[in-house]
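Exercise 7.
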Amino acid sequence: MLWPAALVGLLAIMNRRRAAIVIAVAAIASAVLSSMLDTGGESYLRVANGLDTRGGALLIGCAAALLTVEKVFPTGRRAETMYRAACAVVAAGAIVLFGRGAFDLESGPRWLFFTAAVAATIVIVCVIHDPAGPPARILSWRPLTAVGTVSYGLYLWHYPIALMISGDVISSPTLGLVVRAVAIAAATIASYVLVERPFLRLKDRFRSEAQPS
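Solution. The predicted structure, written as tokens, is:
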């Protein structure tokens, strides 16, 4: 709720490129603060839920969006090769980190949350500027686009459910993972069908009524 107003205010006093730099610096500052608090013994909930410690993920995406609008990122065949290589590095890094359990909700290092946001931003930028490349084709796979359709509900529900069904509730890591995945999927689908889709239909109705006949 606060960020759109802050962005409008920022763009009122400087151009997009300068705003992107300011936002990127703020994102890095947020990541540094998160790491400092984590190593200093602050609780997981403070680091994971603080507006000042988790805002970096939002800010880094916004900075990339502004730079994309300003057409800062290179284009052409060499650039496409670079984008594909960057996506390959991100994918390899994600596989290694997930294999080591680094993204564990409670015990994983907090700096990895910001790293994941940076990695996702890199992939998005690459796909935007190389829409015909292998990364874009992979992400256009129907099951993945289906996840994208319900991604807002997934974003809303995964965290509270993961906290409710923690290791204290289910001691087996494998069983806990399965139960959390099923519960998150059920909540996400229910949220989309019962809440999001009706409002989307309402939005489309208002849009069609607002168009001149």
